[in-house]
Amino acid sequence: MTHTKYVDNPDENEIIFGKNAVTEFLKSSGKADVLYLSSLSEDKSHNYIAALAVKSGVVIKRVHPQKLIKLCGSDRHQGVAVACSGHDYCDVDAIFSRARQLGQAPFIIITDGIEDPHNLGAIIRTALCAGAHGVIIPNRRGCLVTAAVHRASAGACSHILISKVVNVAAEIREIKKRGVFCYCAEAGGELCYDADLTGPAALVVGSEGSGVSRLVKELCDKTISVPMSGEVNSLNASVAAGILMYEFVRQNRQQG
């Protein structure tokens, strides 16, 4: 179930709800239009959220909790929601610029067909924590950054560069020309602990069911996997992605 709810103008306004997601969105100077606060709540954290909204010039409205349920399409709003103009995507050049600004080799996460907003949110959250410079997602084949993704990322969507591209395969061709080595996360590949993951890198994570698409896999330079044992022979996409991301971190920290 998605937590995205469009209001007033379906092409412009989206509701993000929940204390963490709203707080991080406002802290990141996201394009918020209206902050909705429960008129019956005594939660002191709402005062901080309201102060962030005032600082950003966002209109604040106190509404009945039932109004919030109607706006959010859920009773999990925690007494707070914000109407915004959708996620502010960047272009891929901005991700490379971010790496240059930090004096680091580019580290990019690419999703190929991730459809579950909770998986995408978890991947984005881990990417931020692991120091990735940005995330690339497909415009059509997969989930976009919705309110549910914001919630699942615990607000990380507001603090990491996310680029939405028309064609993942074409984008991989382009970033390879820029010296980035592309790794495909797929069962049966070289164990991540045995592979050399240092230097400019992009990690491609496939869909929950079918994995990375054939063409994208063929374009990648190497396929890597997580060692498995026991009766269950697969991991959740976001869990596997997290393990792989931190192996990149470990190896690059060792190399210095």
Give a written overview of the molecule.
This protein has 256 residues and is α/β, with parallel strands linked by helices. The protein folds into 2 domains: 71 residues, Ribosomal protein L30/S12 (60s Ribosomal Protein L30, Chain: A, 2-Layer Sandwich), CATH 3.30.1330.30; 164 residues, SPOUT methyltransferase, trefoil knot domain (Alpha/beta knot). Helices cover 36% and strands 22% of the residues. Strand 2, helix 2 and strand 3 form a beta-alpha-beta unit. Helix 1 packs parallel to helix 2 and helix 5 packs parallel to helix 9. It is elongated, with a radius of gyration of 19 Å. 42% of the residues are buried.
Keywords:
6-stranded parallel β-sheet, alpha/beta, 2 domains, single chain, 4-stranded mixed β-sheet, 256 residues, 60s Ribosomal Protein L30, Chain: A, elongated
Secondary structure layout plus pairing:
Blueprint: E1 14-17, H1 19-27, E2 32-38, H2 45-55, E3 59-63, H3 65-72, E4 80-84, H4 92-102, E5 107-112, H5 117-129, E6 134-138, H6 147-152, E7 162-165, H7 168-177, E8 181-191, E9 201-206, H8 214-219, E10 222-225, H9 237-255
Parallel strand pairs: 2-3, 5-6, 5-9, 6-7, 8-9, 8-10
Antiparallel strand pairs: 1-4, 2-4
Helix pairs in contact: 1-2, 5-9
What is the CATH C-level name of the largest domain?
A: Alpha Beta
At CATH level 2, the architecture of the largest domain is: 3-Layer(aba) Sandwich
Q: CATH superfamily assignment of the largest domain?
A: SPOUT methyltransferase, trefoil knot domain
Count of DSSP H/I helices: 9
Which strand-content bin applies to the residues? 15-25%
Please tell me the overall pLDDT. Answer: 87
Query: What is the gyration radius calculated from CA atoms?
Result: 19 Å
What class would the helix/strand composition place it in? alpha/beta
CATH topology of the largest domain: Alpha/beta knot
Proportion of helical residues: 25-40%
User: Can you write the helix and strand succession as a string?
Assistant: EHEHEHEHEHEHEHEEHEH
Biggest sheet, spatial arrangement of strands? 7-6-5-9-8-10
List unreliable stretches of 5+ residues. Answer: 1-12
Quaternary state reads single chain
